[in-house]
Design goal:
Helix content: 55-70%
Order of helices and strands: HHHHHEHHEEHEEHEE
Largest sheet: 5 strands, mixed
Number of helices: 9
Strand content: 5-15%
Radius of gyration: 38 Å
Low-confidence stretches: 309-315
Mean pLDDT: 80
Number of strands: 7
Shape: elongated
């Protein structure tokens, strides 16, 4: 049964019950008058009572009941159709909206009723879907570009090496080494994409971990890298218990530290801090570096975003590190806050929920 049919039956039942009550009261009054009059002189009755007496004596009661039932169903059908008209319009418009037509919106109407609120809710949903599809197309385009660049470079290196008739073992070896370095670049990009995808999918397992211990291992592994970049790496690590995926937590800290070391200046510094405030674990990574406009801080956490969004900048990274950080923080239910330092660099804090 459709919703309109169910509403029709409900309205018909209510209408029929109301009419039946209105008819039964006078009929019961007529019957009581007849009973009183049978033992004495005729009682004076209202003309309406005479009408109901005629209905009882003529046997037209079933006809009245049948006509009332038909009218109840008819009125119920009309009322249900009137009530469901906005819902039919919303359904027809929503069915017409597809992945290629997400810019279309519903018209909630002038009245602030349930259907208007449903229309506004669906409009918000379509807006989020449109943004998600646009972000997906942007992500695929950027990922294709990032993967195509090393493939093109590998092809060029191999073609040059093969086209040289005087190629020696040393030149061929050099070409092979370049191809291997480009392959490593592709491998890092693929690993970053897989980490981003697994982080956005959510946590598959949760277990207790110490954020301070994980950060200590990350800092220890990157001491040599910090020296290569001529950056001082400091750590103030306290025990900070969390519940989540230790591997993803390590990836979060590693990406923050790598980003702080990569986008820094010679003689700069990076400070990693873990602590517990109010039962919540806090991770803070602060670094010096080039000045970041405050209106571009949030953009840096989008995939394939770099400062200024320029593809001609140095190629140490792919612009996925901070996007991975945000995805892992969201997967753990954490809060991510980033601010630009007045003298250059970033202050990034991740607050994890109580374990």
């Amino acid at each position: 049964m459709t919703l309109r049919m169910r509403l029709t039956l409900v309205h018909a039942a209510l209408f029929f019950a109301a009419v039946a009550i209105l008819l039964s009261v006078p009929l019961l009054a007529v019957k009581s008058v007849q009973q009183v009059g049978s033992g004495g002189p005729p009682a004076v009755t209202h003309p309406a009572a005479n009408l109901y007496r005629e209905i009882l004596s003529s046997g037209t009661g079933p006809t009245v009941i049948a006509v009332t039932a038909v009218l109840s169903v008819a009125f119920g059908w009309l009322i249900a159709g009137r009530l469901l008209r906005p819902l039919r319009a919303i359904t027809a418009t929503a069915m017409d909206i597809s992945a290629s037509n997400l810019s279309r919106r519903l018209r909630p109407g002038k009245h602030d009723d349930e259907f208007a609120r449903l229309g506004r809710t669906l409009n918000d949903l379509f807006a989020r879907l449109e943004a998600a599809f646009a972000s997906q197309r942007h992500f695929v385009a950027n990922a294709s570009h990032e993967l195509r660049t090393p493939l093109t470079a590998e092809r060029a290196v191999l073609q040059v090496a093969l086209a040289d008739p005087n190629a020696s073992a040393a030149t061929l070896r050099s070409a092979c080494e370049k191809v291997l370095r480009l392959g490593d670049q592709q491998q890092r990009l693929i690993d970053a994409l897989l980490t981003l995808a697994s982080s956005e999918r959510g946590l598959e397992r949760r277990e207790p971990a110490d954020l301070g211990g994980i950060a200590a291992a990350v800092v220890r592994d990157r001491t040599e890298t910090a020296g290569h970049h001529q950056v001082r790496l400091d750590a103030r690590l306290e025990t900070a218990p969390v519940t989540g995926d230790p591997a993803l937590a390590e990836s979060l800290i590693a990406n923050l530290v790598d980003n702080a070391l990569r986008y820094n200046v010679p003689g700069g510094w990076v400070q990693v801090t873990t602590t517990t405030v109010g039962g919540q674990a806090l991770l803070s990574v602060r670094n010096s570096g080039p000045e970041v406009p405050s209106d571009q801080v949030d953009l840096l956490f989008e995939p394939f975003r770099r400062l200024g969004n320029s593809r001609t900048r140095r190629r140490e990274g792919h612009g996925l590190g901070l996007a991975i950080v945000r995805a892992i923080a969201d997967a753990h239910g954490g809060e991510l806050a980033a601010t630009a330092r007045p003298g250059g660099g970033l202050d990034i804090t991740v607050t994890f929920p109580r374990p």
